[in-house]
Amino acid sequence: MPLDGMLEILYSRRRFGIRPGLDRVTALLGRLGNPQNTFRSIHVVGTNGKGSTSAFLSAILAAAGQQPALFTSPHLVNFNERFRINDRDIDTPTLAAAMERVMAAAAEETTFFEVVTALAALLFAEHGVSVAVMEAGMGGRSDATAALPGIMTLVTPISLDHCDYLGHSIEVIAAEKSAIAEAATMLVSAAQTEGALQQIKGHASESGIRMFAAGVDFYTAWQDNGLLDYNGIHVKMSGLSPGIPGLYQSGNAGLAMAAAELLPSLGIPVTVENINTGIAKARWPGRMELIPGNPRIMLDGAHNPDGALALQTALTGCCYNKLLLVTGVMADKDVSAVLSPLVPKAETVFCVTPSVERALGSRDLCTVIAGMGGSAMDCGCVADGIARAVQAAGPDDLVLICGSLFTVGEAKAVMSGKQFKGIRG
To answer: 3-281 has which fold?
Structure first.
């Protein structure tokens, strides 16, 4: 069956929603011959920065000659984006063949993300990778990726998000996410709130996990010239130029570098030179991704309050006259909290409805923006929002497309003439 046909069947599994637990994915992996046991997995969990951190670490591993696998979600435009080996998306024929096997083995009740996680494991095993960087979907202990045994866990900054599934306090969410780390392994944590940090420390202590924390065991700091210094666990590096832009990327880069420092102790050779090269070569679409032109267009997938605040801070380093905001958000988000750091900076907010079921309608979004004191325009679809913003922009203005990874993905598809299929999970 062609890939598009199988994807339609796979997407139909969204009807099962999000169902925490490992029984279904473990059973599926077993029917596939447990491919996850043929390579070593590094888990990346947290709320913000998982994708960027994973991209930094994968680039370091590639620079070290490891030919790493990288599993991330969601995709922006093409489903293939979720599965990368040595910095290349899995090709469509290979993906289709593997998906056919996984779909045939999947029980009826297996969820979308569980199938996709098992698919990643099969693809990586069949390509003979030695190490895979596995980004969790949104959880930890009960996330489908937890079915893959991990040698190390990276915990990015934790904040309130997906509360209906993970809990309504940062402490509860931190406990859930950090619990993916297995006993007697290693855990590296980004800077956290005190409550989150105590939960992570508690799990590490109880499970015999060696823990390393930002601000205690390693540090990063920007120089005045825009280069990054790293004071690590064992090494010091200065004058680094991260390939993924944004002031907030210092924490994500530092987390990846700290993890890379520890990998030789696990039998994965990585040098200081590899770290320097990987940090510089790392790329991550949809995170302060700047598209040159007249006007310039920036894409950023910040979709929660902390992510939006980090984006606002990063914009202070950008030079522009007026900021024109094209935004579409999901209805299950705290829209005011997400957009409050950005709306005051915008000349006009062009409200759009991304082509996914969870999207808040552009008219309703306009009402929210107006209530925040912003100037809002109801544009309907993403394509029309981009067109109106570009038309209104001067040569020195910046058009920022943000609010959701789905909005960013659809925008990338619109601007490249590709079809957009936004799927959660």
So the answer is: UDP-N-acetylmuramoyl-L-alanine:D-glutamate ligase (3.40.1190)
